[in-house]
Specification:
Dihydrodipicolinate Reductase, domain 2, alpha/beta, globular, 268 residues, five-stranded mixed β-sheet, 2 domains
Length: 268
């Protein structure tokens, strides 16, 4: 079996799961290297887990890896994507919202033969949206409900002086397009960006974001109206150690990686 060398950008709640699982053994994959902000902290964790993984700068990924997984702050996405795409390699991007204002990354991938992969992540049902997009989708609407602690620090809230302290009921904090939602909540609504890329684009995909103290999970409801089907998808994601990220996100990345060399591939 051919081996795919994997680089991981970021060893947070998602990156650590990936590093462990790849090291434990996934057919066709090997952990090549990682890039982190705090190398000392990351090295201590790698040593404790008995994981051998060189720590390098993202710009060095093409020298070590065939595919890079981006699970880092969206602000460094270009440092991860540009070198890999310029080398004609693959990047699996979790910060889908960061792709929307950077169309030049798609152009670079096209020009150099590289590939940007956006996994299902926390939003099950993207296969159905992708299939519907082969026909005509008339509308897509997404409603997200999160515990207030999962939205704290979002630029949109700070810019508009919206406080989530002491909420005793659900509060609508955003209503608009997926493009504006991804810009205002970069750590929270990558799911909306992925949905828009799968369907009718970030300017026609509409969304609402609610801070709801009654929920302890990240809840997403998608309503799609198309010429082939009308459907509603709902998922309640259990947060990881990072309240902004669901546990299923890392598992979705693992599923996408396994699919690279799987003899049976299920799903679009």
């Amino acid at each position: 079996m051919p081996m795919t060398r994997v680089a991981i950008a970021g060893l947070g709640s998602i990156g650590r799961v990936l590093a462990r699982k790849i090291t434990d053994g996934i057919p066709g994959l090997t952990l090549a290297c990682a890039a982190v902000g705090d190398k000392a902290k990351a090295q201590d964790w790698l040593d404790a887990e008995k994981i051998v993984c060189p720590l390098v700068e993202p710009e060095a990924f093409p020298q070590h890896a065939d595919l890079a997984v981006e699970c880092a702050p969206a602000s460094v996405i270009e440092r991860i994507c540009i070198p890999m795409l310029d080398a004609g390699k693959q990047v699996l991007v979790l910060s889908a919202g960061a792709l929307l204002p950077r169309p030049e990354l798609f152009e670079l991938a096209k020009a150099k033969g590289g590939t940007i992969i956006v996994p299902t992540g926390a939003l099950l049902g993207l296969d159905a949206v992708t299939a519907a997009a082969e026909g005509e989708i008339r509308s897509v609407r997404m409603i997200t409900r999160k515990p207030p602690r999962g939205l704290v620090g979002a630029p949109y809230l700070e810019k508009n002086g919206i406080s989530l302290e002491g909420l005793n009921g659900p509060k609508l904090v955003f209503s608009g397009t997926a493009r504006d939602g991804a810009a205002g909540f970069p750590a929270n609504v990558n799911v909306a960006a992925a949905l828009s890329l799968a369907g009718i684009g970030p300017d026609r995909t509409m969304m609402e974001i609610w801070a709801d103290p009654a929920v302890d999970r990240n809840c997403h409801t998608i309503e799609v109206d198309s010429d082939s089907a009308k459907f509603t998808l709902a998922i309640e994601n259990i947060p990881s150690e990072n309240p902004k990220t669901g546990r299923i996100t890392a598992l979705s990345v693992l599923a996408a990686l396994r699919k690279l060399h799987a003899p049976l591939q299920v799903g679009t």
